[in-house]
Amino acid sequence: MSESDKYPMDSGRRRFVKGVVGGATLVGAGATGATTINLATAPAGEGGGATEMMAIEQTGGPAPNGMPQIPIEIDDEGFLKGVWPEVKTETQEGVQIKVAEMNLGGVTYSGEWFQYCGLESYGGIDPQAEEDNFLRSDANPPYSWQSDAYSEGDKLHVDDFSDYKEWGNEVGADGVGKPATGTWRSQESDDTLPIQVIRSERIEQKVQNDEWLQASTQNGFIAWMNKCTHFCCVPGYKQTADAARYGAANGVYCQCHQSTYDPFTIVQELFIARPRPTDSDDEE
After folding, report:
1. Which of 119, 141, 93 is nearest to 275 (CA)?
2. 143 in Cβ contact with 164 (< 8 Å)
3. Which domain holds residue 113?
4. pLDDT (tens digit, 9 = 90+) per residue, 54-102?
5. Which pairs with CB-CB distance under 8 Å and at least 24 residues apart come from 200-206?
6. How many domains does the chain divide into?
7. 19 by DSSP, 3-state: which?
């Protein structure tokens, strides 16, 4: 089967691979190379285009980019929340649209970070979506501790990660970080935004000299949108022993095509965010 036949013509996933991060020029572009990106490659719609994001670092395999980080805050009751940018109105090509964007830790944090892999059409990515932003447990978490502590939809709580300095599950080393899988901004939508969160001493150590991490993490917690930038599969941290074969026993590993990521190294990357569909797009 040829690469071009891997997905049918009407598949949004194929369009992502071919048109968003598939080109060698884009893969090799750094944050300073924004002016070299041809914005004509961004299809019409709301938002999208050349976007700089903060991401967990891609360390191996075919994935062209890291996965976008989700800034975290902890509310007064100890529940974990993902920060959603402030919503404002902008004029693009003569049309006023709503965008989610804010300055956070010296970085322009935007909802466009998550406009890839078809997620741009999900209800939770709409800047004005009425969501509570809590990180919630998903239906079938791969970690036994999480299955025992939570039911689907329960809000993740800081107290349940208290043993993060010792936790282990016989994958990689113990004490690297305690993980959970979950969803974000998906309570009022038919679509589910998958996320992964870890609490780790490594984040606590790195935050000391990093303005972005000081603003985007709290109490050693870090989170990201858990969609591989290769073929949009859902990777995992310490979910399978196979990860060790690819140097990711203590990292994030995508079983589908062996892409790997380092959740403790955050990098700034440039990619082409896909536009959110407009009403006219939906009608077509």
Report:
1. 119
2. no
3. 3-283
4. 999 999 999 999 999 999 999 999 999 999 999 998 887 788 888 999 9
5. 200/164, 200/176, 200/263, 200/264, 201/164, 201/165, 201/175, 201/177, 202/176, 202/177, 202/264, 203/177, 203/264, 206/264
6. 1
7. helix
